[in-house]
UniProtKB/TrEMBL annotation:
GO terms for biological process: L-methylmalonyl-CoA metabolic process. Keywords: Metal-binding. This is VOC domain-containing protein. InterPro entries: Glyas_Bleomycin-R_OHBP_Dase, MeMalonyl-CoA_epimerase, MMCE/EMCE_epimerase, VOC_core. It comes from Flavobacterium aquatile LMG 4008 = ATCC 11947. NCBIfam families: metmalonyl_epim. It comes from the Bacteria. Gene3D superfamilies: 2,3-Dihydroxybiphenyl 1,2-Dioxygenase, domain 1. One of its GO terms (molecular function) is methylmalonyl-CoA epimerase activity. Residues 3-131 form the VOC domain.
Length: 136
């Protein structure tokens, strides 16, 4: 893992939360997109070198909808930038961590992503991110 890539925050309303974070950071989101396969709309904000991803559910079956129902708005995950997501997934699995997906999938912001089960990471959902097209 090279660095924290972003912190994901589950929100009920992207529109309302975008206004809040624009005020907080003094700048609008630099990117918004929908990841249909995950049932989520996202907004990305930069604050210095730090990136924040806001996540709103687009349907009641999405992981974000289930998170909001159970825990309410707040930090959903911490994402780490990795050079080679496949080797990092294997390394972590060999170390005893449980993966939530067997193969990486396309996520937001031009990334391949995989998640570690929070039961094996002290209750924190960990996301691994590799830039699509980055040479390994």
């Amino acid at each position: 893992m090279r660095k924290i890539e972003h912190i994901g925050i589950a929100v009920k309303s992207l529109e309302t939360s975008n206004l809040l974070f624009e005020k907080l950071f003094g700048a609008p989101a630099y990117k918004q997109e929908e990841v249909v396969s995950e049932g989520v709309k996202t907004s990305f904000f930069m604050n210095g070198p730090n990136k924040i991803e806001l996540l709103e559910a687009t349907n009641s079956e999405s992981p974000i909808a289930k998170f909001l129902e159970k825990k309410g708005e707040g930090i959903h995950h911490i994402a780490f930038d990795v050079k080679d997501i496949l080797s990092e997934m294997k390394r972590l699995q060999d170390e005893g961590f449980t993966l939530l997906n067997e193969v990486p999938k396309k996520g937001a912001d031009n990334k391949l992503v995989a998640f570690l089960h929070p039961k094996t990471t002290n209750g924190v959902l960990i996301e691994l991110c590799q830039e699509i097209g980055e040479q390994v």
